[in-house]
Amino acid sequence: MSTGSFRSGGRDKCRLHMVTWNVATAEPPEDVTALLQLDVQPPTDLYVIGLQEVNATPVRFISDLLAEDSWSHVFMDTLAPRGFVKVTSVRMQGLLLLVFAKQIHLPYIRNIQTTYTRTGIFGYWGNKGGVSVRFSFYGHMVCFLNCHLAAHMNYALQRVDEFEYILEAQDFDITDTPHVLDHKVVFWFGDLNFRIADHGLHFLRSSINSGRLNLLWSKDQLITMKKKEPFLQEFEEGPLNFKPTYKFDRNSDTYDTSGKKRKPAWTDRILWRIKPKTPPSEDDDERASTSTDDGQDEYPILVTQDKYTSEMSYGVSDHKPVIATFNLELRKYFDTPLVHISPVGVWSADQDALLNYTIQEYFMSSTWDWIGLYKVGFKSASDYETFVWVRENELPETNEVIQISVDKDGIPLLSGEYVLGYYSTNMQSIIGLSANFQILESKRAVMEGLVPDINGLNK
């Protein structure tokens, strides 16, 4: 199995592709290939997609259990065949945050938690705010925060206040990282709604049309607010070398020609923050010289941005999507899954099948944990063909081999490539995956007419 762009040795590289897009309640375009840059080399390892103003009605059902919106469907349908699994998602009205990972990384994405915060500075509770996802990635604590902040030119201060409020209000049930800024790496992105102050419409448009975007940077409200607010200075952003992404006439590259004639602005942004090292206190000198801050020195993580641009080809919204790609260079804290799992013998729907699993390292297991059978190219942890509960009568010992039977009625009749995944209820994630394996075509498939009976003609 390909490990994406990961390399062995002391440091590993992971490619992260991020999107932010205010979709203005539009239905998704049929083709999101350009948005996801699917054919880029080296290939992506993680996709993180933040949307704002997603239409509030669920359109279709992925299963009887989960109602998903049409945007989630388009991304899952596009990414699953390429081996990306939806790790998690969080939604608060129009705000949606989706995380996808290459199948090989799933056992190393742990302690996934999501939360959301409504902001209501103007009394419209719920239509603005932030949604976030945090998890440990090979032991590194990362957090993604998708925000939709207050609109309008003269509310720059309120936008900063809203962001501060979101950072204060969000908490996670994780001892080391109870708040967003406790994480080693934070990505802050979304429709942050900062505008370009002072300049008139004519100057804005001529600067954009002549490609002299740098003339507008000094009046961008986020850039100017960063100079005043120390906590914002901890966030980095690449240069704004793409046209302002708001406000366009739909299905065009033309800025707003309506009566309102809104001034163009870089409302849609992607920033990141590496947790600053805590300076040692005066009476702490001895201990400080021997300790490392959160293991940052021994297990460093380096974030570099490769690309920061907009994708002008999409016209369903009055905003253009913004894309950023990053290289995360990190040393893994671990590279062994918590659970080892494997099919035993031949699998087909003609007889009950067996699987073995072994807890390789202690974790908070639960009798609500389960093992799913997935077709390779599955969309999410809930997209299984069948599942079995883990052993219920006693908790597993470390390194004990436990065997479980899988009822033949749950096994697919036709042949195909499958994988077994151990789902931890406490960690909210798949923490062990078998190697991919073949399920053989069953005799029942012929009897039920699912495949032609080659020999039947001779009888």
Automatic annotation (TrEMBL):
All residue ranges annotated as the Inositol polyphosphate-related phosphatase domain in the record: 12-334
Region annotation (Disordered) ranges: 275-297
CDD domains: INPP5c_INPP5J-like
GO biological process, one term: phosphatidylinositol dephosphorylation
GO molecular function: inositol bisphosphate phosphatase activity; phosphatidylinositol-3,4,5-trisphosphate 5-phosphatase activity; phosphatidylinositol-4,5-bisphosphate 5-phosphatase activity
A GO cellular component entry from the record: endoplasmic reticulum
InterPro entries noted in UniProt: Endo/exonu/phosph_ase_sf, IP5, IPPc, SKICH
One Pfam family, short name: Exo_endo_phos2
Family per similarity comment: Belongs to the inositol 1,4,5-trisphosphate 5-phosphatase type II family.
Protein name: Inositol polyphosphate-5-phosphatase K
Organism in which the protein naturally occurs: Seriola lalandi dorsalis
Organism lineage string: Eukaryota, Metazoa, Chordata, Craniata, Vertebrata
